């Protein structure tokens, strides 16, 4: 996954998006999270061992080398 989800804000200050977990679905070895960020809902998949509760504040970290600009 190119977007990481964590409880604590990562050390770096670029490409970090705070959000709120809206829901989750278990998909075997992964958990699919809906995260609301500034009115946009993103779906993030994370390993099953990382669990976040509905309504919990999280931080999404997007790796710069995986970003693609769209005109």
Question: Which SSEs are present, and which pair or pack?
Answer:
Blueprint: E1 3-6, E2 16-27, E3 30-37, E4 40-47, E5 57-62
Antiparallel strand pairs: 1-5, 2-3, 2-5, 3-4
As residue ranges, the low-confidence spans are none
Multimeric status of the protein: single chain
Give the number of DSSP strands.
5
- First-last Cα distance: 24 Å
| Beta-strand content | over 45%
What share of the residues lie within helices? under 10%
What is the number of helical segments per DSSP (H or I, 4+ residues)? 0
Spatially, the strands of the biggest sheet line up as 1-5-2-3-4
Q: What structural class do the secondary elements suggest?
A: mainly beta
> How would you sum up the major sheet?
5 strands, antiparallel
Please provide the ordered H/E string of secondary-structure elements.
EEEEE
If you compute it from the alpha carbons, what radius of gyration comes out, rounded to the nearest whole angstrom?
12 Å
Q: How confident is the prediction overall: mean pLDDT?
A: 88
Task: Indicate the overall shape.
Answer: globular
Could you explain the architecture of this structure?
This protein has strands spanning 3-6, 16-27, 30-37, 40-47, 57-62. With 71 residues, it is mostly beta strands. Strands 1-5-2-3-4 form a 5-stranded antiparallel β-sheet, with no helix packed on it. Strand 2 (16-27) and strand 3 (30-37) form a beta hairpin. It is globular, with a radius of gyration of 12 Å. The model has no long low-confidence stretch (mean pLDDT 88).
